[in-house]
Design goal:
Chains: A mainly beta (871), B mainly alpha (377), C mainly alpha (234)
Organism (chain A): Rhodanobacter thiooxydans
Oligomer: heterotrimer
InterPro entries (chain A): Decahaem-assoc_OM_MtrB/PioB
Number of helices of chain A: 4
Protein name (chain A): MtrB/PioB family decaheme-associated outer membrane protein
Pfam families (chain A): MtrB_PioB
Order of helices and strands of chain B: HHHHHHHHHHHHEHHEH
Strand order of the largest sheet of chain B: 1-2
Largest interface: A-B, 278 and 198 residues
Largest sheet of chain A: 26 strands, antiparallel, barrel
Keywords (chain A): Signal
Helix content of chain B: 25-40%
């Protein structure tokens, strides 16, 4: 493709022009790009400069935007537009039509104090050293509208971005980018294993797999050096958007993301709590080694009457580490029977399988009479994976428990540690989705409009798996790699219709292909009252038909009123209130029989019947009857010529018709903010916010011990009802999570001429308290007097609080050189009862934790000096 | 009964829209044909020359592009000319000044000098100017503000040009109509009917094409997140919580997940469902898995408060409470955990310490292991 | 119209107009706003007209006893906006506006003097209406402007009858209307001279003058003559 006709580029600019003209074509209506259609990569910023371009916006034009009036104009809602920066036209590039402008901000950053504080570096890789604040180089051909834009920033090798855009206004754009984003999960992790980050976590001396004492484990844990757990996302992409032919605009992009690092993970070798010195509960570290390639294609045609849009999104996820093997240091012993025959010391997880995703969508919109529009979208999508399945266990030798002939609960690992033990070698998993969305809108008069919409969406899981072992003719699986069945006799996870020992065991034998079909109908009207106010009413009927769930039908009816006024004593007020009621068909507390061995031929009910799967009075919160009301007010008040006061008040109340399960949630909050820009040189902002929320649930402890009702395995345990022998009223309990959040702060920026100062303070405080009450101590996990006394004290409060002070001074040395000095001081406080006691030890009998949790207190400072150069 | 009422509603809706489409087809074309026709002769002012006379002395602001399309709703291609896409910008009709005529941008900037300086350095005008360089200054002030002659004579009379700011007398529909005349389709295809449209937002609530307030996106504030936070202050506050999406760190923007210009979902998500948005970055959770966890597959929001939460990993409630909302099964899930069971308590219990339930059920998003129906494999 | 004819139109019209019509590119060098008086927040000023009478003795030498000047090169002050007059005196005083005689005269004026004098002249009856030619080129320019040349109608800011702006009530940010002069019955020769000064940038010391600078840039000598003639007789 030749350079654009009539382009009088100087040789210097010719290269740019060539590059820019590469894809350039003439056409119509490529008004702008479709970036807001694709997920991700809309924003490139850094912890140092979250906007990603702050230095480009200084300093403000002292002339403002008009000689005709003072101050800045306001948005239709009433917020002030900020003062724009002093225009910089850029410098000419030779004698061509090309101009260029650039900016370089680089300098040195020093991090002091508790630089490893988890919440300080959660998504920021703060490091002492040289940093590239921002690099910008823009070229623009004023005549042809061709441009080249380069931007970059680097805080560290794990926290940086670079982006190049080449294009021509209204014709095309090509974009390439590379970015690294850090995510720190923990900065106080003490994993005892070798091979952290790999698929094999191994123990080294003095620890021996399956044969170490808690004391030995505790000693090793205490001696383990601290390390950080986290990952880096590395994304790179290339995209094109432009006019293809006549009015057809196309886009194509490919993005590749590599995610590498580690995350905290689990490791189960059966319970420890009911069996002192037995089982094993491990907090392990899993590897993250993902690659995702996304392909996005779109084609659209924008006519006067018809708008057409076709999009294809393909995503291809590859996990280079599809499993995690770990060695458990703890010894297991069978609670019944002798001698001990099993030696289970390893655990295994399957990690996420590779998957492919395709989604094809067509959107069609047509302008109609009465100021109307008809819009229709249809999509088909599929998610698939066919990874090779791992064997049901990795154990060797004999697992399980031998009591006395004929009571032999052992199994031969060789029959289960091979993929020949599977009914199928690959997952062959697939979910297909379908969507139809149609909407008509009419505004026959300025004062009245109405709309109707219909949405149909289906998710169909086509995965079918039967847990059948052709080697043994048994159904089921090996629970927790063999550990469960090697501690408790028979609880291996096996159902065998031909073996009296195993023919009454309830185990999962099929996967549950959950899915749903959701149909939403909506009808709404809106009325305009005068020029300043409007009222809208929308009725929504959401009809959901889930598959293989407790309900086959859930209907959510919703009415929403919204009122907008542009002049309530000068303010714009947006108010909305909605009320919703959800109900459905009969709630079947146990729809899962078909997925368990009880549905297979040859299943024999135990003597005392099958224990109730769950309490019949339970209502899962995504399916239960519910009433919901929500209200929200957003107020924007223009305060004089140069200030804006804005506020939000909001709340919601959800009540669930559930005796057991989630009972209610409520949130109430308010924010208020004051923005003031008296002159182009001064900007002030003050804000405050508060929110409180609560969530209440109820549950009932089953009679799992002689001290809180009839013990398991006794007659009557088949009764699922609350108040029955298995779920006595005496064992019911209630829990209430209350959280409150407070935040506030101010920012102040003033330009003194040679120096611009900015000062900012932010406070954030979150407090949580989980309270509980119970009918009797039968509800408690532990009912001995010491436990009851400790329970009465209640959970300690959770807390997360930060104070951050930022100060910056920008010195202008001349028109193109400046120096920025800045500092930040942050203190934080954190407590979470999940980590209570972890500061002393991570080892509790046969439990071993890796993460101590966030630092209880920290203070950290950043000091930096940057050189600003205008290129 | 419900099924019947739903069916009725659907049929009604379909019938209405089909009828309107049939009826509307001709009218729309006629309207659009008329919309660009030259204004009729108006009462001549005292001066003698009428405004339409003056208008005839001017270049047509859309260079005839509108006329070329008048008979044909599907615009003819401009690809055989030097015209840029911006030449297609016609002068919008201003319902509040039906008799005004175009005067040309030069008259506007005679008084609005500083506006011209600022706008000239905005992305919007740079794009317009590039069009002007080839074929003349078609797209200029009046392409957005409507014909300006009446305003020039009486600048403070309400509504004589299409305004986009707080005191504008032009309705939000008129304002959005101006922008959508060029910025139609694509990411804005579902603007009509979206919550932002319903709440009477105008394009200029979020954008300011008249000055370079942001280097990209012609925003009304210095960044996307600040624009959104001017109304959604409570959501911005959530990003300060213990676990949050990396917005305050500058790694993300609201528009990474949401399309403020409208979409087919209520929360303006870019994809068909909530989960598909999440899977875009968390592709490993897409699966499908051999063994699925119902609330996970149904909606990520069942357990996660995606903007920010006071719990680990954006959870809506502390573990084990989160899980015990549903898991009342016999044996270990339904015990009340208490302060006695913390690491600092007399009876430490794996169900409430550290990762709690997830210590064993680590594959809570689904397991692909044949021994993973309980997600601990 | 086919796309072919529209192309022809574009070429014909575009050829002559690319350079100057439309939103013309402003100069790239941003002139520093040194000494420019920002009138955008100016409130209407008032003073003591009676006291002003006592201070006006020297003024009458040129501007006449009734505020109507003795020669056409001097402006008529009778009935002029007090705020406008005050601003001019301040500008002469501080040097934003250059006039050999007036700079000297205003040098010794204090703020109160300027207010009093402004009020004094503002209170005088303006020059009686003349017999302006409504069909003249000047009337055309004043009332409707000339879009082909990018001349905006003067009446927008100076009022349909030249008696000053008459803004509609609005909550929008407003120009300092009181500082906009009345042109009715002004000396044509004076107006022509001032338009020339605006155009050349000689008179550019206030934010209002910045606006007039842009307007005057669209006027050629004939337009200035036509406008001055019209206003002289209005």
């Amino acid at each position: 493709m030749p350079v654009q006709k009539g382009n009088h580029s100087a040789p210097k600019a010719l290269t740019l022009g060539l590059l820019a003209g590469l894809f350039g074509m003439h056409g119509a209506l490529a008004s702008d790009t479709s970036g807001t259609m694709r997920v991700g990569d809309m924003h490139y910023g850094s912890p140092l400069d979250p906007t990603g371009w702050a230095p480009m916006l200084y300093r403000a034009d002292p002339e403002g935007t008009s000689y005709l009036h003072a101050g800045m104009l306001r948005t239709p809602t009433g917020a002030l537009y900020p003062y724009p920066p002093l225009p910089e036209a850029g410098k000419p590039l030779g004698l061509s039509d090309w101009n260029y402008a650039g900016l370089l901000q680089l300098g040195y950053l020093h991090v002091g104090g508790d630089r490893n504080a988890e919440y300080f570096r959660q998504y920021a890789d703060w490091k002492s050293g040289a940093v590239l604040g921002l690099f910008v180089l823009d070229f623009l051909n004023r005549r042809t509208g061709q441009y080249v834009e380069l931007r970059g920033s680097r805080l560290s090798g794990d926290d940086q971005f670079y982006r190049l855009r080449v294009g021509r206004y209204g014709h095309y754009r090509v974009e390439g980018f590379y970015r690294d984003m850090p995510h720190t999960v923990s900065t106080s992790a003490y994993p005892i294993w070798n091979g952290v980050g790999s698929t094999d976590l191994t123990l080294s001396a003095p620890l021996v797999p399956g044969a170490s004492t808690p004391a030995q484990v505790a000693a090793v844990s205490a001696a383990t050096p601290r390390r950080s757990i986290g990952m880096t996302r590395t994304r790179a992409g290339l995209g094109y958007e432009g006019v293809l032919y006549r009015d057809w605009i196309g886009s194509a992009s490919i993005t590749n993301e590599k995610r590498t690092g580690t995350r905290l993970w689990g490791g189960s070798m059966f319970f420890n709590y009911p069996f002192p010195s037995n089982g094993g509960v491990l907090e392990t570290v899993r590897p993250i080694d993902f690659r995702t390639t996304d392909i996005n294609l779109s084609l659209r045609n924008v006519g006067k009457v018809w708008h057409f849009l076709a999009t294809y999104n393909g995503s291809f996820f590859r996990n280079h580490k599809d499993h995690l093997n770990f060695q458990s240091p703890f010894a297991l012993w069978n609670v019944v029977g002798t001698p001990q025959v099993a030696d289970i010391k390893n655990g295994q997880f399957s990690l996420e399988p590779d998957n492919d995703y395709h989604n094809l969508r067509l959107d069609l919109t047509r302008t109609l009479k009465w100021n109307g529009q008809f819009s229709m979208a249809g999509a088909w999508g599929t998610m698939r994976q066919n990874d090779a399945l791992l064997a049901p266990t990795t154990c060797t030798g004999t697992g399980g428990i031998f009591i006395a002939p004929p009571v032999d609960y052992t199994f031969q690992c060789a029959n289960w540690n091979t993929t020949a033990a599977l009914s199928q070698r690959n997952a062959n998993a697939r979910i297909d989705t379908g969507l139809v969305d149609a909407r008509v809108t009419f505004h026959p008069t300025a004062a009245f409009g109405w709309h109707a919409g219909l949405r149909w969406y289906r998710e169909n899981d086509k995965t079918r798996y039967l847990a059948y072992n052709p080697l043994t003719g048994q159904y089921g699986y090996i629970s927790e790699n063999g550990s469960q069945g090697s501690v408790v006799p028979g609880e291996t996870g096996i159902f065998d219709p031909n073996n009296p020992l195993y023919r009454s065991y309830m185990v999962t034998v099929r996967n549950n292909p959950f899915g749903y079909t959701d149909t939403i109908f909506e009808l709404g009207g809106d009325w305009q009252f005068g020029r300043k106010s409007s009222l809208g009413v929308v009725y929504t009927f959401d009809h959901n038909r889930p598959k293989y769930r407790e309900r086959k039908r859930i209907d959510d009816q919703r009415i929403k009123f919204d009122w907008v006024s542009r002049d309530v004593i000068g303010a714009t007020v947006r108010l909305s209130w909605e009320y919703a009621r959800r109900d459905g068909d009969r709630y079947n507390y146990n729809p899962y029989r078909q997925f368990f061995s009880e549905s297979l031929p040859g299943f024999v009910e135990p003597v005392n019947g099958l224990p109730a799967h769950t309490v019949a009075d339970m209502r899962k919160y995504d399916l239960s009857d519910r009433t919901e009301s929500k209200a929200r007010v957003i107020i924007t008040y223009p305060w004089g010529e140069s200030a804006t006061l804005s506020a939000t008040f909001y709340g919601n109340r959800d009540n669930y018709d559930a005796t057991i399960g989630r009972q209610n949630t409520r949130t109430t909050g308010a924010t208020v903010q004051w923005d003031w820009q008296p002159t182009p040189a001064t900007v002030v902002n003050v804000y405050l916010g508060a929110e409180s929320s609560r969530l209440g649930i109820s549950n009932v402890n089953d009679a799992d011990g002689p001290d809180n009702g009839k013990a398991l395995g006794t007659p009557g345990q088949t009764n699922p009802n609350l108040g029955g022998p298995l779920y006595p009223f005496a064992n019911q309990w209630w829990e209430l999570d209350r959280e409150s959040n407070r935040n506030g702060g101010f920012s102040l920026s003033h330009d003194f001429g040679r120096v611009r100062a900015d000062l900012r303070y932010d406070y954030n405080g979150s407090f949580g308290h989980v309270g509980y009450r119970y009918a009797t101590i039968g509800a408690l996990a532990n009912r001995v007097p010491a436990a009851v006394a400790a329970a009465a004290a209640g959970y300690p409060d959770n807390k997360y609080r930060t104070n951050t002070l930022d100060l910056g001074l920008n010195f202008a040395i001349n028109r193109s050189v400046g120096v920025r000095l800045f500092g930040r001081y942050q203190t934080g406080a954190f407590s979470d009862w999940h980590y209570a006691g972890f500061d002393k030890t991570l080892s509790y009998d046969h439990r071993l934790y890796t993460d101590k949790g966030g630092q209880l207190h920290y203070s950290v400072s950043l000091v930096g000096v940057m050189l600003n150069l205008k290129l | 009964m419900r099924a019947i009422s739903l069916l009725l509603a659907v049929v009604l809706c379909a019938a209405l829209s089909a009828g309107a489409m049939l009826l509307g087809a001709r009218d729309v074309q006629a309207q659009q044909a008329g919309g660009n026709a030259a204004p009729g002769a108006h009462a001549a002012p005292a001066g003698g020359l009428s405004q339409s006379d003056i208008a005839r002395m001017l270049p047509a602001t859309d260079m005839g592009a509108g006329a070329a399309r008048a008979g044909n709703p599907h615009p003819a291609s401009m690809s055989d000319s030097l015209a840029t896409p911006f030449d297609a910008a016609s002068i919008p009709a201003n319902p509040l000044a039906p008799n005004a005529d175009a005067t040309g941008a030069k008259s506007c900037v005679a008084c609005h000098t500083q506006e011209n300086v600022q706008a000239s350095h905005s992305l919007h005008m740079a794009a317009f100017r590039a069009g002007a360089a080839n074929t003349g200054p078609q797209a200029a002030c009046e392409s957005c503000h409507g014909p300006g002659s009446a305003h020039a004579k009486d600048p403070t009379a309400p509504g004589l040009i299409i305004g986009f700011t707080h005191d504008s007398k032009s309705s939000p529909q008129t304002q959005a109509g101006v922008c959508l005349a060029c910025h139609a389709g694509g990411a804005r295809q579902h603007w009509i009917g979206s919550i932002h449209q319903n709440r009477g937002l105008s394009c200029t609530d979020c954008h300011n094409p008249m000055a370079r307030l942001s280097p990209e996106g012609a925003l009304a504030k210095s960044s996307i997140n600040e624009v959104c936070a001017s109304c959604h202050q409570d959501i911005r506050a959530k990003f300060n919580r213990r676990s949050h999406m990396p917005l305050p760190e500058g790694q993300m923007a609201c528009t990474d997940c949401h399309n403020p210009h409208g979409s087919i979902t209520k929360p303006l998500l870019k994809t068909d469902t909530v989960n598909e948005t999440c899977y875009t970055c968390h592709a490993e959770k897409r699966g499908p898995f051999l063994f699925e966890h119902a609330p996970v597959r149904q909606n990520c929001l069942n357990c996660h408060d995606v903007h920010g939460s006071n719990q680990q990993t954006l959870l809506v409630a502390p573990i084990p409470m989160l899980c015990q909302q549903c898991h009342t099964m016999t044996r270990h899930p339904n015990d009340l955990q208490s302060a006695a069971n913390l690491g600092s308590g007399p009876f430490p219990d794996e169900r409430s310490m550290g990762r709690g339930c997830l210590s064993c059920h680590a594959n809570i998003h689904g397991s692909n292991n044949p021994s993973g129906p309980k997600f601990h494999k | 119209m086919t796309s072919r004819t529209s192309l022809l139109c574009m070429l014909l019209l575009g050829a002559g107009l690319v350079a100057d019509a439309g939103a013309s590119e402003p100069p790239h060098t941003h002139t520093p706003p040194t000494r420019v008086v920002d009138l955008r927040r100016l409130q209407p000023v008032s003073g003591d007209a009676v006291a002003g009478a006592g201070k006006a003795t020297v003024c009458t030498a040129c501007h006449g006893a009734r505020g109507l000047s003795i020669a056409p090169e001097f402006p008529n002050l009778a009935g002029q906006s007090a705020t406008y007059l005050y601003v001019q005196l301040k500008e002469f005083h501080e040097g934003q506006r250059v006039g050999a005689v007036m700079n000297g005269q205003a040098a010794t004026l204090g703020d109160t003097d300027a207010r009093d004098l402004a009020s004094y002249y503002a209170a005088m009856p303006p020059k009686p209406a003349g017999r302006a030619d409504a069909a003249s080129r000047g009337a055309q320019l004043y009332l409707a402007g000339d879009p082909a040349k990018g001349i905006p109608p003067c009446q927008g800011c100076h009022g349909p009858d030249g008696a000053g702006p008459r803004p509609h009530a609005s909550s929008a940010p407003q120009p300092p209307w009181a500082a906009f002069p009345r042109l009715r019955g002004q000396s044509g020769q004076y107006l022509a001279h001032e338009l020339h000064d605006f155009k050349t940038g000689t008179r550019a010391g206030t934010s209002n003058a910045k606006v007039m600078q842009g307007v005057a840039a669209t006027l050629d000598d004939e337009d200035v003559q036509a406008l001055s003639a019209y206003l002289d007789t209005l």
